[in-house]
Amino acid sequence: MKSPFSGLPDRVRPTRPEVVALGLSLFIAGVLGFVLAGQILSPNKRVIEALMGIAVLVAAFMLPSRYSVAFMLFIIPFPQNTTMGSTTVIFSYIIFAFWLLRVALGYERKPIGGGIEKPLVVIFLLFILSFTQVAPGEMDEAIKRFRIFVSSIFIFYLVLNLVRTERDIRFVLNALIASFFFVAIVAMTEIWFPGFAHIFSVLRVKTSQMETLQGVRVGSVFGDYEMFAEYLAIFIPMLLIRVVSERVFLRQIIWLPTLMLAIMLLLATATRGAFLSLIAGVVYLTWIARRILNYQKMLPVLIGVLAVFYVSSIVLNQYTSTASLFGRLGETKLVRGMPETRARVWSEAWEKIKEKPWLGHGPYYFAGVDERNVRHWYPHSLFLFYAYLVGIPGALVFYYILLFALRKSILAAKAYASRRTDLAYTVVLLSAVMVIFLVDEIKISFMRYENTQQFTWTMLALLIGSSRIALLTAEWEKKRKERNDAALG
After folding, report:
1. Half-sphere exposure of 280 (CA within 13 A, CB side)
2. For residue 335, what are the β-bridge partners?
């Protein structure tokens, strides 16, 4: 069959869609630039915000979804508040809506599920029912927190549908690590140049350096040293992925200082729970990856990590006012089998949960003015927090989702436990991340803040997506081997 354009003169060519998109993008950029330039002399805050909103809408639709999602992942740790909600919440709704539109128009691949759709629907319905328990004066805040939960689910499915190949895994990791660098810069400024930390207020980025009886504990953009510590404990295995996956030694040298920086910052938080969770993750990692570990190479790495811990501890103790992690570990006491800092709050939180065990108190909890002034019965545990919000059934359903993700990651790790490939290292280390998260959430809850909720759902999507890729690849390789054996036989 002849091309419909075969009869046209040689100089005439059909206009390609990407050329039209480029032309339209340049036209819109020119108009926006002209109007914004006029705002330099007589700036109007609403005009600028409206123009930036239009720019985001155009970019979200015209750019491939992967770049919109990468931008959203980068800004998760530092949301900016607006009258309609935070920027991250708004972007997640916009990007998700345009992704669905692009799927409907055929510009994106068909969506895939994560295998947790049924329990997610149950939790969603339980959140809706829990609104009946919210006090009238707290309804606005409850709706706001519910919007954050929905935005986290949108982010989960955006990342899950982005992660379809090994290249996509690296793309998501790069976006998260780029964000980590900015978070680390804020934290390092708080430690070494505390007088200059206010410069980040120009970018409307929160900083948090909290004075305690033991010394200063760094919270960076999260405003909470415990959540920042969990963030760092999760990122240490993720940075290890980049170290072990690099084949060129010079590139490994670039990533090693970043890994050391994460370790130093973890020490600067002086958070025992995150440190012990990291140890649990390393123990699990050693067991699950025992067949692919090169012990001759691992011994120098282990010695190097211990040296970083020791030197960083001395440097922080001698030249900063940060609290001592190891000093706090030595002071740890147990009360009725519980850590002394949790025994009372866990007991009091449980009494509050028993007041409304089936539907909970609704999707809002006022923690207090800041970390040092929380209510005594604040639920310092993920299970207690979820049970307080949506009841014990909701907490059990959510823990089922976490255990589903853990089981899937363990199956993927076992499928590659005897291989030394980039995918093997990735799925094994991400499986260790899940263990670190579960152990640390025993004494804290990612539900406390917007950015920690969205980051956690991002990691769940990355974990489930990479596990799916690994299991499908392993199944395909198994069938190919069987076909080859049958042909030879």
Report:
1. 18
2. 338
